[in-house]
Structures are given as structure tokens and as C-alpha cells.
From TrEMBL:
It comes from the Eukaryota. It comes from Glomus cerebriforme. Keywords: Metal-binding, Zinc, Zinc-finger. InterPro entries: Znf_BED. One of its GO terms (molecular function) is zinc ion binding. This is BED-type domain-containing protein. Residues 6-60 form the BED-type domain. The keyword Zinc-finger applies.
Length: 101
């Protein structure tokens, strides 16, 4: 049985795959600081770029922060009725994002 490869998210663009023995969590290395991850987990890779990698460009860090913010806004707006979504302002959304951190 052939295993179907899952689509990789944008965080993978910033890591080199060192070895991939038919594993969904291969050994990877950060392209900026050469930090090794024996078992690649996208959430940990993303956290590394956002908080720990001193060499990662700011636009890489901000790219992930925009994704997180967009995801939170989408999640919030999924729970609004049509009427509520018309009257919610950007200030409301910013307040909600700050509260839900």
C-alpha cells in the first residue's frame, strides 16, 4: 500500500529535510541557524522561527503571526450570526484577539 504524502504548510520552506525515511516527521534543519530537529513537528518548527531563531528574517516571523491572527479572526467570525458579523468592527476583533491570547 502506497502512503499518500500530506501537503506541507509554509513553515517547511524554511527548513531543509536532512533525511526522510518514509517518515511524516523527518529530520530537518533550520535554513537560518542550522538548528536540528530530529523529528519535524510543524508547530515546533514554527515556534522556533517565531521565538528562538535569531537569524530568521523579520518577514518570516511576521508571516506566521499574520497566519495565526487570520486563523483566530476566521474562527471567531465562524461563531457569529449574519447580523452580528455586519456590526462587528475591527476594534472589536482586535479586542477579542487580545483577550483570547
Amino acid at each position: 500500500m502506497v502512503k499518500k504524502e500530506r501537503k506541507k504548510g509554509p513553515v517547511w520552506e524554511h527548513f531543509n529535510i536532512e533525511s526522510n525515511k518514509d517518515d511524516s516527521h523527518p529530520h530537518v534543519r533550520c535554513k537560518y541557524c542550522s538548528k536540528d530537529f530530529k523529528r519535524a513537528v510543524p508547530e515546533r518548527m514554527q515556534a522556533h522561527l517565531n521565538k528562538k531563531c535569531l537569524e530568521a528574517p523579520n518577514n518570516v516571523k511576521s508571516q506566521f503571526m499574520r497566519q495565526i491572527t487570520t486563523s483566530r479572526i476566521d474562527n471567531f467570525s465562524d461563531h457569529l450570526s449574519e447580523e452580528e458579523s455586519r456590526i462587528v468592527t475591527s476594534k472589536d476583533i482586535i479586542f477579542i484577539l487580545q483577550v483570547t491570547k
